[in-house]
Design goal:
Alpha-Beta Plaits
């Protein structure tokens, strides 16, 4: 590969890193062609961008990106496929779903919610991370719950008082 081509690839990867808030480093080298196609199709459905990269080019792209990504250097060995997405736990769920019964794809590392997770042992923790929209939904639900209870109590109390007054007036 010529130097100009490498520079262009590094720039493209650095742009992709900046465009997505989370990424997962995985090893999919031992998947056969059919399973790789299925994985790519599933990634597309779930708005995950799957890119196979050379470790040195990815490392150089990380150096160009904002922030210190040196914690991921340990994982940049062997074959590496990168899953980019904006939802924190979607790639982890996909990896767990696809790798049932096997260890492929294998999680090497992840950059999620501005934290580093190195090693496959973090997969369950990554699956349980809630996305921003899920957290906002939970907070709104918790905030609405007391208000709904108060309104419900007021409405039922008004009905009860009205019923008692109506019965008394009829007598």
């Amino acid at each position: 590969m010529r130097k100009e081509d490498k520079t262009a690839v590094i720039e493209q990867i650095a742009t992709t890193i900046g465009a997505y808030s989370h990424f997962y480093l995985t090893d999919i080298a031992t998947l056969n062609a059919a399973k790789t196609s299925d994985l790519r199709r599933e990634c597309t459905k779930q708005e995950i961008k799957l890119v196979v990269v050379k470790n040195t080019l990815f490392r150089k792209a990380l150096e160009k990106a904002e922030g210190d990504f040196s914690a991921l250097d340990v994982a940049l060995k062997g074959n590496t496929a990168v899953m980019f997405c904006n939802a924190a736990n979607v790639p982890a769920k996909l990896i767990k779903q696809v790798s049932k019964g096997t260890d492929i794809p294998k999680l090497k590392a992840a950059y999620v919610e501005e934290s580093f997770y190195v090693g496959a042992q973090h997969l369950d923790a990554l699956v349980s991370i809630k996305s921003k929209n899920e957290l906002i939904g939970e907070v709104i639900g918790l905030l609405q719950s007391p208000a709904k209870n108060v309104i419900s109590a007021l409405q039922s109390g008004g009905t009860t008082i009205h019923g008692v007054l109506k019965t008394l007036s009829e007598r």
